[in-house]
Write a structure and sequence with these properties.
The chain is built from eight helices and ten strands. By secondary structure, it is an alpha/beta fold. The chain has a ten-stranded mixed beta sheet with strand order 1-9-10-8-2-7-3-4-5-6, with helices on both faces. The structure holds NADP nicotinamide-adenine-dinucleotide phosphate. The site of NADP nicotinamide-adenine-dinucleotide phosphate has 29 residues, from strand 2, helix 3 and helix 8.
């Protein structure tokens, strides 16, 4: 799982500090970055999961990218499908964060319209910090079951209501920033990425290109009814074997 930097300033076998430096976002500004893995042919999953595409280098960076974040944003579909655990970083990450004045752990922020999330899952019960669920206001979906789910969830999370039929990504950012959560790291999935892109709410993308042609019918990493071409600028290129780890910022 050696990771080299190809560009800028080629260097071999970067340690974690060097990886954190090369993937660093401007600390003085609010930012929202997404992290994805894709096969060469654009498939975002293997056997329905992103983990099938990744290797040890991708997992190493996946973990490190959480370190500087105030919040980790995840769509409900990804949390359910990938069986998300509590947002609890290891001791080394906690020491790194607290030395820099950050909270020991980032806040897990979920996006869901239906609120079909199990309040007894470890993602909530084992959380070191109360997670946040961003959803649409009651009334936009007149559903008694949803109202009950909302009530049960409210016992274990903070609920932010925004938007109408869809959660409004820009107002999610504003609401999080008001709570001091200015640096947001997103872990997908495709519908969250698509809706945040459509709203112009994504500043950067960390993209691992897994050295594989998957074929099949797996979807790609951004999915929204409205196409929103967004120019991106290449910021760094890392490599581990035949895998590329690319950082793009909004152009
Ligand atoms: N390749 C990668 O790096 C990567 C990363 C993450 C996930 N994935 C894969 O992607 C698949 C899941 O895809 P997905 O598109 O379903 O994931 P997703 O974007 O995480 O979840 C979609 C769900 O999020 C909620 N949602 C998203 N945008 C919303 C909005 N603007 N307003 C209200 N709710 C919103 C809805 O939740 P409710 O249904 O609860 O209303 C929606 O059904 C899994 O197979 C996962 O493994 C791949």
């Amino acid at each position: 799982m050696l990771i080299d930097r190809l560009w800028p300033d080629p260097a071999s076998d970067l340690d974690d500090e060097a990886l954190l430096a090369v993937t660093r976002m401007p600390p003085g500004r609010e930012w929202l970055r997404m992290n994805f893995i894709s096969a060469i042919d654009g498939a975002a999953t293997r056997d329905g999961l992103s983990g099938g595409l990744g290797d040890a280098a991708d997992r190493r960076l996946f973990d490190l990218l959480r370190w500087p974040a105030d919040a980790v944003l995840v769509g409900a579909g990804t949390a359910r499908r990938e069986e998300y655990a509590a947002m609890r970083l290891d001791d080394r990450a906690v020491a790194w964060r607290t030395a820099r004045g950050l909270a020991p752990h980032p806040v897990l922020v979920l996006v869901s319209r239906t609120l079909d999330l199990d309040p007894s899952s470890a993602m909530f019960t084992d959380a070191p910090v109360r997670p946040i669920v961003c959803t649409v206001p009651a009334g936009s979906t007149e559903d008694e079951d949803r109202a009950q789910r909302r009530e049960r969830l409210a016992a274990v999370v903070e609920i932010i209501e925004t938007g109408a039929d869809d959660v409004d990504p820009l107002s999610v950012r504003t609401s999080l920033a008001r709570r001091g959560l200015r640096h947001v790291h997103g872990e997908g999935g495709p519908h969250v990425f698509g809706s945040f892109l459509a709203a112009g709410a994504v500043d950067a993308l960390h993209l691992t290109i897994a050295p594989s042609l998957e074929g099949g019918s797996a979807g790609r990493m951004a999915n929204h009814p409205t196409a929103t071409p967004t120019d991106m600028r290449l910021a760094s290129v890392l490599r581990s074997g035949s895998e590329l780890l690319l950082q793009y910022v909004r152009g």
